[in-house]
Specification:
Blueprint (H helix, E strand, L loop, with lengths): L17 H15 L3 H14 L4 H13 L3 H14 L4 H13 L3 H14 L4 H25 L6 H14 L25
Helix pairs in contact: 1-2, 1-3, 2-3, 3-4, 4-5, 5-6, 5-7, 6-7, 7-8
């Protein structure tokens, strides 16, 4: 079943000093141009002297995901969600990686955290809807297995599968390319 989840990619914290923003732009551009190894190297170099910078940690996690290092990317996003729990974007991207691995309950929990942190974060709301739809389809499939004659499940399952399959593959369905739209900015800055 095709399913799309959107990742956030971009500047998380606009309160960074001007010199820091100048450091983010090349990494972000490298990610957008598919130069993942260069972006990762640049992020690592930056973080060697400023390890607590959440924006560069976020970009590094995205580079790890783009490089196919999913376990490392998950660990990096988890660290960000622990150190800066008020930021919605790391929760969203963590959820997208969980969803790719069909870990729907952890994805749901991460998206609910993103929405608690930023109730106006449309991407997280959309992604949560996608996850809930997949969870509903799983439940209806299980109900059909438990009671094959249950006629009310068939139309629901068919509708859910139709929605899941009709969703076109998005650039962010797998975290290997950035979304076309500008990412949202969190409503709160790290404390």
């Amino acid at each position: 079943m095709a399913m799309t989840l959107s990742l956030a990619l971009g500047v998380l914290v606009p309160w960074q000093p001007a010199y820091a923003v100048d450091d983010y732009a090349p990494v972000l551009q490298m990610l957008r141009n598919g130069r993942t190894a260069d972006a990762l190297a640049r992020a690592d170099q930056y973080l060697a002297t400023r390890p607590r910078d959440p924006q560069m940690q976020f970009l590094r996690a995205q580079a790890l995901a783009n490089a196919g290092r999913t376990a490392d990317a998950i660990a990096a996003y988890q660290q960000l969600t622990q150190e800066y729990p008020e930021l919605a974007e790391p929760h969203n991207n963590l959820a997208a990686l969980y969803a790719i691995q069909n870990q729907l309950e952890p994805a749901r929990a991460a998206l609910e955290a993103a929405i608690r942190n930023n109730p106006t974060y449309a991407t997280a709301h959309e992604n949560l809807g996608d996850i809930l739809l997949r969870l509903a389809a799983q439940s209806w499939t299980r109900a059909r297995q438990l009671e094959p004659g249950l006629t009310s499940v068939g139309p629901k399952l068919a509708a859910a599968r139709g929605l899941i399959e009709a969703t076109p593959p998005a650039r962010a369905a797998t975290p290997f390319s950035p979304p076309a739209s500008t990412p949202s900015t969190p409503s709160t800055a790290p404390r």
